[in-house]
Specification:
With 188 residues, the chain is mainly beta. It contains 2 helices and 14 strands, in the order βββββαββββββββαβ. The chain has 2 domains: 12-110, no CATH class; 113-187, no CATH class. The protein is globular.
């Protein structure tokens, strides 16, 4: 099976980009750790300016780098992946102060972290930071046997990027999900 790095498609100048001013105590990278969140604050609000963009995508660009998806995209993800938590967010127009429906967008907390990074076949560099090795991967390679049939996952030791299966990619394309790009990665 093929695997891909999931990338935000930001090529359309008319796409809505949302900004969060108050995360109510949640750190930007807290959602990258793959931990189930018990105390999510439903008042977290993202704002957009309709004069800067008015095309809502299913994968919504935002200043925190969170994986924010529409109700339509949420439904698709729920059908193919279990190791996920959906956290509701509010989306409000700065000018009119009108709110998009409460259940329209969700932050996806990807809980599935797999130890499948294959450094031998990846293109990367290593930095030493206070005695800890930090890997900067330019081109990813994964070991398919260690992915355990996940369709959406993160790699242990490099939890920021999201990766998807060929099945996930096909469903996104068949369902006309907007805002996604895919970069194929090496699989062995």
């Amino acid at each position: 099976m093929k695997y891909f790095k999931l990338i935000l498609d930001d090529s359309n100048d008319n796409d809505v980009v949302v900004h969060c001013k108050d995360t109510h105590g949640f750190e930007q990278y807290e959602l990258k750790e793959g931990n189930f969140l018990e105390n999510w604050n439903n008042n977290i609000t993202f704002y957009f300016n309709s004069f800067e963009g008015n095309r809502f995508t299913d994968y919504l660009a935002n200043n925190l780098g969170w994986f924010i998806v529409s109700k339509k995209f949420k439904k698709l993800i729920k059908n193919i992946e279990d190791d996920i938590q959906f956290l509701p967010v509010n989306v409000v127009d700065l000018e009119s102060k009108s709110k998009i429906d409460n259940d329209e967008y969700f932050v996806v907390n990807v809980l599935g972290i797999v130890d499948a990074l294959n450094l031998e076949n990846s293109d990367y560099s290593v930095m030493d930071l206070d005695g800890e090795k930090i890997y900067s991967v330019r081109k990813y390679a994964v070991s398919e046997a260690k992915i355990n049939n996940k369709n959406l996952f993160k790699l242990q030791g490099d939890e920021i990027p999201l990766f998807v299966s060929e099945t996930f990619k096909q469903l996104v394309e068949e369902n006309n999900i907007t805002g996604c790009e895919f970069l194929e990665i090496r699989t062995d």
